[in-house]
Every structure is written in C-alpha cells, then in structure tokens.
Design brief:
Radius of gyration: 26 Å
Shape: globular
Number of helices: 19
Low-confidence stretches: none
Mean pLDDT: 91
Helix content: 25-40%
Length: about 525
C-alpha cells in the first residue's frame, strides 16, 4: 500500500509558556466562566449533543443569536474551532494577552482574525475527594482542522480518559507512575492521591502539553520524563502504575499512519503484553496497577487466556475484565475513522484492506477491550479473567473504590479458611436489591436475582437458601449461625448446606454484594 493517506503533514505548534502566562490564562478563563456548565448553557443540550456527534451548526447558530462575551469568544475559538476578531480575542484574554498566547502556541493570527492553535476544553469530574474541574489543552481535532489529524497529534479528553481516571484507586500513596501520559490528564488525577507522580511519554510534544496542563491548573509534584515504556524509570519502583498505553493494533505497512498517541510501534498486541510483563519489576510490594488495553483473539486461542499466559510466571494478583469484543472489520473502521479519515473515500478503503490483510495473516478473529488490575505482594490469591459486557452500576466517581474494595476482600478471604469464614459476621451492601419473578397465581418465585446497584452492576441468580442468607445478613449473627438457622427451617443437613453456600458467599464478598461487618 502506498500513496496519500490523508494524514496532515502540517507541523504542529510548540506549546510552551512561562508560569506567568499560564497563570494569566487561567485567570482569564475563570473570569469568562469557561466551565463545562457555562459552555453547555451557551447553546443548550441539543447543540451540545450535536457537538458530541461532530456537528457544530446548532451551536454556531445559538451563539450568533447572543451578544458576544468573553465566554462565547473562548467557546467559539476552542470548542467550535472557528476564528474570532482580534478585538474579541483581546477582550477575552486581557490578562494573558493575545501576543503571549500566540507565542505559547495556544492562539495563532490569521490576517485580521485570531484562531485557536490547540484545543482547550473545560473538564469536570468527581472522585472520592469530591468534585473538581480543570482546563485541558490538546491538539485540534478533525472538526476544527477540516482534515485528518497529524501523526504527532496529542489526544484530549475521551471515553478512555474518564474510564481510566475512574479506575484509579482513591487510596493515598507515595509515588505513582503514569506510563504514556499523553496530555497529562491521568498524572493530574493521580496527583490528587499521591505525593509524587512521574509521567512518561515517547512524544516530546505530549510531554510539553502535559506540562502546560499541569501548570495551567496549578498542579505541582509531577515530573515529566521522555522515553519509551519503562525505559525512563529503569530500576525504579512505584506504589501505583496507571496507563492507557498506545495499544491500538496497526498494520506494519507502508502508507498506514502511525499515530503517536495510540500506536506503540509493535505488531499486534505485543505492546500490551510488554507493558503487563514489565509491571512486576516496577511495583513496590503491595503496589497496584490499573491499565486499559486490548488483546487479540486468534484461531483456537481465546484472548483472555492469552492475557493469563502473560502472568504465568509471576506471583502478582491479577484481575482482567473484558468489556467489549470487536470483529476485525469493526475494529479497523473504528480506528481509521478515529484518525480523521472518512468512510467512502479511496484512502479509507485502502486502509481497511491493510487492516484486514494483517488480521487474516496473523489469524486474528477479534479484539477484546478492557481493564487490567494488578497487585504485587506474592500471594497470587486473585487470578480472575472475566467478561462483563453488561451495563455498569451507578458509579459517578468511577470504579476505583470498587476495585480497592475487591482487593481488600481478596486479602480478607485469603486469611480465612472455612471455619474462620463461618465465624465471621457479614452484612449485605447498601446497593443490593432483590428481584423476584412469579408465574401467575403462584406464591413461590420462579426466579430470584440479587442486583448490585453500584460497582460492576452484577446480577446473581439466587436459590431460596442464598436469598434467605442475604436477607438475614445484617452483621449481627455469624455466617455459621445464619446457615444453621436456614438448614433448620428448610429441613436440610447443616454440613451439606454449608458446603453449598460458603463458596457462593465468598464470591458475593469478592464482588461486594456482602461486606465484612
């Protein structure tokens, strides 16, 4: 394959500024009210939804019907990617000044107009420390550029961003490694629970933008290092490692663009394998890692079993969740479109051919996406590889607290044999409800299901004994006492019921439906 790939070859501006400039820019954005709520209020929910679909017409029309303000000017520049007059730009940035923002690579002069040189968005989040908001600089997307993005493009906030930030454990630690920091968002989230963060990336441009974002939001304690994967931290260990690595599977062929933010330069899922195999030597005892990734399913070779094999020679606790699986055509189309190449064009079709040829040659039948959670410590008590395609529970702050609770449950369960477990006190979690289904006219339920409202939103089928135990689990009686009472009421053997119930109760503790009292 050769020829024009449609990828932009325009050199991107350097994004670097002195602290005085970023402080002044932050002051201007604050004065303008440049927040998620403020921007959405400018054009309403319908226009905001259209913007998420990549269409800015409704938002542009809404702004045209309103007086020009610093907020509308800022949103026009950075959200809609449209130019404004020099006078309006100067009114929007009185503290920073247009010349300083041009020198910083944030704005550019285009004749009598001023245009955005980067994307700069407000970002709001909730974690266990409460609600927060930042401004995040990244590179202009396809909508603002009007063409495919550059191979050195630095990605901004997306679905993967919020997923990984929500996976981070809300537990204070000393040192965190953000491997492949990109625009720096994960390092910034990690800093809320860490004394020090080391953020690495193979892209110097990404490091410049990440440093700019930390500076813009007044976040210190992050050290930025250039290099590939674990090279910048050779010989060092961390209490936590977070990473959204450049895991996208890309054909190694001439004419196929290699975007730095998503392509690690290896064949297939080898980059994810390399990162996962490298965790053990960079985690402190008891340290954890939370990552996103994808893995190939091949002829006769299940993807999750391949991931399991990558940990075969380690003593790590490992929990891998496959949330989605895409077939080769869907995977190819997703990532080609992500780069800004439009379907229906010859370039798009050529790229799909390259992807499908690569998958065919390597016997790939699908690609799984999901989460990887690892803990060091030498127990191997947790080796869980599962598929959870169902909808998550209500998790406004993400899954970090759920993961932390699960890791605690693993340790708690590992320290208790059946006798100790029977002597424990359990209570049902506050987000658990029970569904019952009846045949018409029948007093006995035909189906009983325990439903988790938070966490992974698990649904567990229950028989009479399990439902009765959960209903009685208020922390007052021991496990053994409740099981004994159920055995007496139902007329079954106590030991037989214990042998049946205890393994299932352990699973409910692991999944967070039952909690140690």
């Amino acid at each position: 394959m050769s020829g024009d790939t449609g990828v932009s070859a325009v050199r991107l501006p350097d994004v670097v500024a002195e602290p005085a400039v970023t402080s002044a820019l932050a002051a201007d954005l604050t004065t303008a009210g440049y927040t998620v709520e403020g921007v959405d209020a400018l054009w309403g929910t319908e226009a905001a939804a259209a913007l998420h679909r990549g269409v800015r017409v409704a938002a542009r029309r809404a702004l045209a019907a309103r007086p020009t303000t610093p907020l509308s000017t800022t949103a026009t520049l950075f959200v809609l990617g449209l130019p404004v007059s020099r006078a309006d730009a100067e009114a929007a940035f009185p503290a920073a000044g247009v010349p300083a923002l041009v020198a910083a690579g944030v704005l550019r002069i285009d004749g009598d107009s001023v245009a955005a040189a980067v994307d700069l968005r407000p970002y709001a989040f909730v974690d266990d420390l409460g609600a927060g908001s930042w401004w995040i600089v990244s590179d202009l997307g396809e909508l603002a550029l009007g063409h495919a993005i550059s191979e050195e493009h630095v990605l901004g906030i997306g679905g993967a961003t919020t997923t990984l930030s929500g996976l981070q454990l809300p537990v204070p630690v000393r040192r965190v490694l953000d491997l492949g920091t990109g625009c720096g968002i994960q390092a910034m989230h990690a800093r809320r629970f860490a004394d020090q963060v080391v953020a690495t990336d193979i892209s110097r441009r990404a490091l410049d933008i990440a440093r700019f974002n930390a500076q813009l939001n007044g976040i210190d304690g992050i050290e930025f290092r250039h290099g590939s994967l674990f090279e910048p931290v050779a010989g060092e260990r961390f209490d936590r490692i977070v990473s959204n690595p450049p895991f996208v599977i890309t054909p190694r062929r001439e004419g196929v663009p290699a975007y730095e933010y998503r392509d690690g330069g290896m064949v297939g899922d080898a980059l994810v394998e390399t990162v996962l195999r490298g965790l053990a030597e960079h985690l402190e005892p008891g340290g954890t890692a939370q990552l996103l990734g994808n893995w190939e399913h091949r002829w006769g070779d299940d993807g999750l079993e391949r991931v399991r094999s990558w940990f075969a020679d380690t003593d790590l606790d490992v929990w891998v969740v496959e949330r989605e699986r895409e077939d080769p055509p869907a995977y190819a189309e997703t990532w080609i479109r992500d780069g800004g190449t439009k379907p229906g064009t010859p370039v798009f079709d050529d790229l799909v051919d390259a992807w499908l040829d690569d998958f065919r040659d390597r016997h790939v039948t699908g690609v799984g996406f999901g989460y990887v959670v690892v803990r060091s410590g030498g127990t191997s008590a947790l080796r869980r590889f599962e598929r959870l395609p169902q909808v998550l529970g209500a998790n406004p702050a993400g899954l970090g607290a759920t993961i932390a609770r699960t890791l605690d449950a693993v340790s708690w369960l590992a320290g208790r044999d059946d006798d100790a477990f029977a002597a424990a006190h359990l209570r049902v979690a506050g987000d658990v409800t029970e569904e019952r289904h009846y045949w018409p006219g029948n007093d006995d339920p035909t189906v009983m299901t325990l439903v988790q409202g938070g966490g992974f939103g698990r649904r567990v089928d229950a028989d009479t004994a399990l439902a009765a135990f959960v209903g009685a689990a208020d922390g007052e009686l021991t496990v053994g006492q409740i099981v004994g009472a159920i055995a007496q009421l139902t007329g079954v053997d106590d030991r037989a019921l214990s042998a049946d119930l205890l393994p299932r109760l352990r699973d409910l503790v692991l999944d967070g439906l039952l909690l140690p009292a």
